Amino acid sequence: MNTTHFQHWPAGLPHALTVPDTSVYVNLEVSAHRFPDKTAIIFYDSLISYRQLNAEVEALAGYLQHVCGVKRGDRVLLDMQNCPQFVIGFYAILRADAMVVPVNPMLLTDELRHYAEDSGAKVVIASQEVFPRIAPLVGPTGLQHAIVATYSDYTTVATDLSLPEYVRAPRDVPSLPGVIAWKDSIAAGYRPEPHRATADDLACMPYTSGTTGKPKGCTHTHRSLMFTAVASPTWSVALVPNHVSLAVLPFFHVTGMQVSMNSIIYSGGSVAILPRWDRDVAGQLITRYRVTTWTSIPTMMIDFLSNPKLDQYDISSLERVSGGGAAMPAAIAQKLLDLTGQQYMEGYGLSETMAATHTNPPQRLKMQCLGIPVFNVDSRVIDPVTLAQLPVGEVGEIVMHGPQVFQGYWNDPQKTAEAFIELDGKRFFRSGDLGYMDDEGFFFFTDRLKRMINASGFKVWPAEVEAMMYQHAEIQECCIIAARDAYRGETVKAVVVKRPGSDVTPEAIIKWAHEHMAAYKTPRLVEFVATLPKSATGKVMWRVLQEKELAG
Description:
The chain contains 16 helices and 28 strands. It is an alpha/beta fold. It folds into two domains: 407 residues, CATH 3.40.50.12780; 101 residues, GMP Synthetase, Chain A, domain 3 (2-Layer Sandwich). Strands 2-1-12-11-13-14-15-16-17 form a nine-stranded mixed beta sheet, sandwiched between helices. Strands 4-3-5-6-7 form a five-stranded parallel beta sheet, with helices on both faces. Strands 18, 19, 21, 22 and 23 form a five-stranded antiparallel beta sheet that branches. Strand 5, helix 5 and strand 6 form a beta-alpha-beta unit. Helix 1 runs antiparallel to helix 2, helix 1 runs parallel beside helix 9 and helix 11 packs across helix 12. The N and C termini lie far apart (47 Å).
């Protein structure tokens, strides 16, 4: 295990972390005992205390067990945007000793069918606006029960904040066999059985698309969830109940789930929830509720900092601004620092690792850097073919061993076996991400293993070129893909969103790129588009652009 990074370890923290040996639900139970009247959830201007939160979790868990027949180890789909019901539903499933299957609320019926059939779930908890997509599956698949939530049930006070129409919509739950409105399931008042799940019970199964095939379920125990829920706030901010988290990254995604929700519940803080990104409401919530921690992604930060109303908001309460998913362009990070005094703390993790395995230490932040391995993590860079460990500075596949690594892919022993290797007697997960380690033990991402562009034998990593392109003053967003080239085999193409009002030409961008990077990395083609396709978590979907280019 490399220990070079220990010289940059956060002051006063141990290299190994001991976390509670209990289920994740116990975190809520403890916080409700400690801080019963403290605000747990802020939904626009409506507040929910820890006492109310835990009481509703207990009631829903009782309904799941006594009416829906949920047993220990069963899977329950949770399909909704960020809202109080997601938090309640998540902890109720855990309280019922079952496993949460978080679902992207953008999925359509055919996609949802795979989740339902693959997981074997017999119950779904869904929000009202997405329920029509899953309704056809209740009965024909293994799904026998559906609990349908209406967001407006939890907007209990008047607010001057802008509420989207789907949040304001009144309750409209169809009368169908096996379907019940959320409010009615809570009001039924069932008491759950004694909580039996241990740290080693299955707790959560996020699905990951990978590079090919249908999405695969990543099985996590309470132990792997607990680790990142505790490690995240311990790393850079004191574990105190005074913290307020702006929760805008989707809860169905492991970063939003762990950093913005579970970490805060563990510490007794408050979660200010936004169902979808809205830069104005984000600024108002930070100002109004003195938000201290905000985990975002670069696309959100780019939009937030370009808001002409930015000077109307007081964001001085922020103590940590962090994120991952893609490297923060240096120019954007500098703008954040200039305007707010905050340095963007980048980290790295995957669905298979239940959020971060690497994070930048707060006293030694490096831009466009994954950071160093966090508590208890052994991470290395290997040759993806020979599996030999590579020296400092050489690009290879990032692998990691740690307590947050998943158990394996659901019902897929072959894919599970392919995902792990053994080094020095330890089981390491193969991330499929390419990167390198510098001489201080910091890790840097270059690209996905499958995304490399081979231009006349020169290896081009698109993420590296994108980071360079963001330094151009006329570029708002950029995605680098491969284009066919009769001579070079493949060449570099830039798909660009120009800044509003810009009249820059493709030729000017190419000329600029030639002046700022090696010739083989320089885009030979530039295409202007109005927007880049993005996933529900805000990541640019480069594969969509790549497939379109190859099809054309």
